[in-house]
Amino acid sequence: MKSKIAASLSLMLIGATVAAPGAFAQDAKEQAEMEVRPVKIKSPLIPVALDKTLPNGLRLVVSEDHSAPVASIAIVYDVGARDEKKTRSGFAHLFEHMMFQGSQNVGKMDHFKYIESIGGSLNASTHADFTNYFEKVPANQIELCLWLESDRMRSLKVTPENFKNQLETVKEEKRLRIDNQPYAPANIRLEELAFDNWANAHPAIGYFEDLEASSVEDVRNFFKTYYAPNNATMAIVGDVKADEIYDMVVKYFGTIPAVKAPARPDLTEPVQTKPKYEKIEDAQAKAPAFWVAYKAPARRDKDFYALNLLQTMLSTGESSRLYQRMVKSDKVALQVSSSYEERRGPSLFQTFVVLKAPATADSARKILQDELAKIKSEPVSAEELQKAKNQLLRGLFSSSSYASLQRSLGRAEMLAEYTSFFKDPKLIDEDIKAYMAVTAKDVQDVANKVFNESGVTVVDVVPQVKAASQSDKKSEVIK
C-alpha cells in the first residue's frame, strides 16, 4: 500500500505538468508537441472524521491518520493583540506565558514536565489576531494533553505572584528579542507608523507602561473574557479514533461554562493619501537599512492569493527578482526580503533592505521601485508564476517545512486556524485551488492596487553614532 507520506510528496507537483517518458531526450520543438498530463490533487487535503461543537461552544475537529503512532493537538483562542484596549496592551502575549504558570491540579511549569517526560513536544505563540497552544505526543498519551489543556482553561492561577513574575519575564524577552536586536525596534515603529488604527498598529508584545499600570483584576478579567470554550477551537490529528476523542473532550471540557461572546474591535483602516516617512537611529545596527511598506488586504481577500505569490517572486530564494537585482546585479544590498503577514484584518506588505556600501538608501529605493514598476507594467511570465506556485506547494508538502502537511502538527494547526477564523475547514482545499488559479494578470492587477506612491511608508535606519568618551578625547589631544 502506498504510504500517506509518499502520497503527500506526489502532491508537490500540483498544477505543474509532467512530460511523457523520454521527453528529456527530445529537442525543444518535439517537447512542445508532446502531450502533458496535469497532476491532480486528492480532496480533501486533510480528511475530517469529526467536526462538532459542544453545548458550551467549544468546536472540535478530528482528522484520523493511522500511518504513525503519534497525535497532535492544536487549540486556537480567538484573541490577539488586536483585541486589547488602549492603556492595556500586551495582555494577549502575557497570557501566552501565564498559561504555563499552573492551575488547580497542575503546578507551575509542570505542563512542560508532563509532556516532555512522555517524549512529547509543545509550544505556544501570540499573533495580531489569535493565540495558539499545541502539543505533539505518542498517540496513546493524547488524553494527558486534554486533561492539561482543560485544567488551565478551567482554573488558571492568576495570582499577584504569577503576574509579577511573568511581567518580568516579558520584559526580559523584549530586551532580548527587540531592544538588543538590530533593526527590531525600527520594525515595530514601521507598523505603528503605517497603520492608522491603534488596534492594528500596536505591537503584540505591548507597552510595559500599560502592563505595569494594570491590576491583577484587569488580568483576571481578560482571562475570563477570552479563555473560554466558546472562544476556542481544538483540532486533533493522528492515530486516534474520532468517537473516542469526542468522548474524552466532553469528559474534560464539557462542564466548563461558556461566557458572553466578547466584543470585537473595529479594524477598519483609512486609505492612505500621502507617503509616510521616519528616520531612526539604531545602536545595534552595523549597516544602514530601510523598510518600505504598503497596506495590504486581509487573509482570504480576493487579492490575497496573487499578492502572496508576488511576495514569493520578489524575494524567495536567490533566483528571486529583488535578490538578483539588488544583491547580485546592482550590488546595493547585503540583504533583501519581502513579507506579507496573513492577518484576518488589514495587513502590511513589507520589504526590508540592508544596504551595501557605498549605496545610499535613496539609490537603493529607486532600484526597488523600478522592480515594482516592472511588475505593474509587464505581466510575469508563465514560468515565473508556476515557479512561485511550486514554491508555495513545497512549503505545504516538503518534509523539511514547519507547516508541512506531512506533519500531524502542521495539519492540526491548519485545521484549527481555518475552523476558528473562517468556520469551515474545507476552505483549505478552496485556498489551494485559488492559488493555482492565479493568473499573470491577477498579479499585475494586485501590484497596481497595492504599490502606489501615496500609500507607501518608509522607515530609514542608520547606525547610531556613539559619543566619544573622555578617554578617547584625551587620546586625540595627545596625538
Summarize this, please?
The protein is an alpha+beta fold and 479 residues long.
**Total beta-strand segments:** 13
Strand content: 15-25%
Helix and strand composition category: alpha+beta
> N-to-C terminal Cα separation, in Å?
81 Å
Radius of gyration: 25 Å
- Spans with pLDDT under 50 lasting ≥5 residues? 1-36, 475-479
CATH-defined architecture of the largest domain: 2-Layer Sandwich
Mean pLDDT: 90
| Helix run count | 19
CATH superfamily heading of the largest domain: Metalloenzyme, LuxS/M16 peptidase-like
Q: Tally the structural domains.
A: 3
* Spatial strand sequence of the major β-sheet: 3-4-8-5-7-6
Which shape, going by the Cα principal axes? globular
| CATH classification class of the largest domain | Alpha Beta
Descriptive overview:
- The chain is of the alpha+beta class and 479 residues long.
- It has three domains: 4-38, no CATH class; 50-253, Metalloenzyme, LuxS/M16 peptidase-like (Cytochrome Bc1 Complex, Chain A, domain 1, 2-Layer Sandwich), CATH 3.30.830.10; 276-463, 2-Layer Sandwich (Cytochrome Bc1 Complex, Chain A, domain 1), CATH 3.30.830.10.
- It is built from 19 helices and 13 strands.
- The chain has helices spanning 4-10, 28-33, 91-98, 110-117, 142-155, 160-179, 184-194, 198-201, 208-212, 216-226, 242-253, 304-315, 321-329, 361-377, 382-397, 408-422, 427-437, 440-450, 470-478, and strands at 17-19, 36-38, 50-53, 59-64, 70-77, 121-126, 131-138, 232-238, 276-282, 289-296, 333-340, 347-355, 456-463.
- Strands 3-4-8-5-7-6 form a six-stranded mixed β-sheet, with helices on both faces. Strands 9-13-10-12-11 form a five-stranded mixed β-sheet, with helices on both faces. Strands 1-2 form a two-stranded antiparallel ribbon.
- Strand 11 and strand 12 form a beta hairpin.
- The longest helix has 20 residues, at 160-179.
